[in-house]
Amino acid sequence: MEQDEEKLLHSVALQNAASILLARQRAEQELVRAKQELEAKNKELAQSLKLTEAAILQGDRARAEADEARRAAQSANDAKTRFLNMMSHELRTPLGAIGGYAALLEEGIYGTLTEEQAKYIARIRHNQAHLLQLVNELLDLGKIESGAFELRLDAVPVQIVVDSAHTMIEPQIRARDLQLEVEVADPDLRFLADRERVEQIVLNLLSNAVKFTPPGGSVRIRVVGKEDQICVGVRDTGVGIPADKLEAVFDAFYQVEASRSRANAGTGLGLSISRQLARAMGGDLTVKSEMGKGSTFSLSLPRSP
């Protein structure tokens, strides 16, 4: 009996030893596997760190290059502004002289002109005025971009601005056989703005409307007052502007379909300068248009108390 118990105990001990050995082997295998996984993760982490360091270096390099590009662009812009200012001032003097001498000839100071001579003098004056306008616009653009543009904000009567623009645009209206409608909701309305620049914007909008409206069409000025703003709308029955070009018309030197309408093309600066002036005075200049049905430019400016 005792021998049987000893055999049984011996058998159990062997089984336990075998189980322990098997468990140990499995533990060792798990340990080896865990060690291998850890080494693999360490390698991945090291690689990731290298990539991160490379990305940081690349980012630093990209930022340095971007900073350098910005400095170069600013330097080029400053040089362009200085060039525009210099050339504008240099060109204004001889252009003014050309206009003055042409006016003297036109008035017959140096003798009566023949019909043919008068026609050529008129062309000289027309082209001189066009060049002078371009020079003035370039000068304005240079001042605005350099931040050297000064505005004198004051209470400006709306009616005076509208009447001034009306008087200046009237010859073009008659020449193109157009109708001009003027509607001012309240003659006592006053802008809080720079009078000279408001007149410049409104006249530019009217000139564009006349330029791109075919004979027999109409141009309308409508002024309404809101709680803290005054809105001047200039609507025409002209060719219209494509939907994808509505914002581009405010870019400097941009001209809508200039190749097809070169006879009507201007400098491409008027609308850009007008919007920048409007925003500098606390307002804005926007446009709505439909091809073949005309355009409406809306100038909004602060209302004077």
How would you explain this protein's 3D organization?
- This protein has 305 residues and is α+β, with helices and mostly antiparallel strands.
- Helix content is 60%, strand content 15%.
- It has helices at 2-106, 115-146, 158-175, 195-211, 270-280, and strands spanning 154-157, 179-184, 190-193, 218-225, 229-236, 284-290, 294-302.
- Strands 2-4-5-7-6 form a five-stranded mixed beta sheet, with helices on one face. Strands 1-3 form a two-stranded antiparallel ribbon.
- The radius of gyration is 39 Å and the shape is elongated.
- Residues 258-263 have low confidence and may be disordered.
Detail the topology: elements first, then pairings.
Layout (H helix, E strand, L loop, with lengths): L1 H105 L8 H32 L7 E4 H18 L3 E6 L5 E4 L1 H17 L6 E8 L3 E8 L33 H11 L3 E7 L3 E9 L3
Parallel strand pairs: 2-4
Antiparallel strand pairs: 1-3, 4-5, 5-7, 6-7
Helix pairs in contact: 1-2, 2-5, 3-4, 4-5
Keywords:
single chain; 305 residues; alpha+beta; 5-stranded mixed beta sheet; two-stranded antiparallel sheet; 60% helix; 15% strand; elongated
